[in-house]
Amino acid sequence: MLGKKLVTAQKRGETRALCLGLGMVACSMMMYFFIGITIVPSYTKSVWTTETVCKVLKANIKDKVHCSQSEDSEDENVSHYPCLQVWVNLTASGQEVMLYQTEDTLERDPKCSYVPGNSENPKEVKTRIETIASNFKRYQTFPCYYDPGGTQTNVILSRLYPPKGLLFAFLWPTLLFTGGCLIILLVKISQYVSVLSAWQ
């Protein structure tokens, strides 16, 4: 009687462990799919892949310049905020080009080097932009990214998804997938040992 209870409890434990392993594998597959349709296209689409050194030439704030969030936006969706324009000397080619914060900044508003969020406080945005401008004037030289192919003549300060960021994004689903596979493997080994013991 005790032996049957032990066998039943063992089977229940194996079933739960197997379900946990399969669940972990399924979750990792969903995470891989999500990363594949969101982060990977943005990473491969970016042409600013080569790092170089940029030197600030001028950093101007145009308070009354109206910067729209997108070219197709209607009047009610237009945001008004101080427009920071930073021009740098690209060390790799010696050209005078405009600097953007990220790839997304250029898509949202090609007139401004920095684009704040839609729901941010206007006073806080103005203070932040002034701080950013003063930092550019203080730190004249810094690393930036440019397009070695020449399709984009401007540069960006930082990439949305650098190679390290992409690897980090794949780290967690990989660990989850590996853990799930190990659990399934251990359950199968346990079942095999149990069957082997029963035959003996």
Index terms:
2 domains; transmembrane helix; 200 residues; elongated; alpha+beta; 4 helices; five-stranded mixed beta sheet; 17% strand
General description of the model:
With 200 residues, this protein is α+β, with helices and mostly antiparallel strands. It folds into 2 domains: 50-161, no CATH class; 162-199. 52% of the residues lie in helices and 17% in strands. It is built from 4 helices and 5 strands. The chain has helices at 2-45, 103-108, 122-138, 163-199, and strands at residues 50-62, 83-90, 96-100, 141-146, 155-156. The chain has a 5-stranded mixed sheet. Strand 2 (83-90) and strand 3 form a beta hairpin. The chain is elongated, with a radius of gyration of 27 Å. Residues 67-78 have low confidence and may be disordered.
Question: Helices and strands in order, then pairings?
Answer:
Blueprint: H1 2-45, E1 50-62, E2 83-90, E3 96-100, H2 103-108, H3 122-138, E4 141-146, E5 155-156, H4 163-199
Parallel strand pairs: 3-5
Antiparallel strand pairs: 1-2, 1-4, 2-3
Helix pairs in contact: 1-4
Strand content: 15-25%
Largest sheet: 5 strands, mixed
Beta-strand segment tally: 5
**What share of residues is helical?**
40-55%
Silhouette: elongated
The SSE order reads HEEEHHEEH
Please give the order of strands in the largest beta sheet: 4-1-2-3-5
What number of domains? Answer: 2
Chain-averaged pLDDT: 82
Distance between the first and last residues' Cα? 21 Å
Please count the helical segments: 4
The assigned structural class equals: alpha+beta
Low-pLDDT residue intervals, each spanning 5 or more residues: 67-78
Alpha carbon gyration radius = 27 Å
Subcellular location: Membrane
GO molecular function, one term: calcium-activated potassium channel activity
Protein name: Putative calcium-activated potassium channel subunit beta
GO cellular component, one term: voltage-gated potassium channel complex
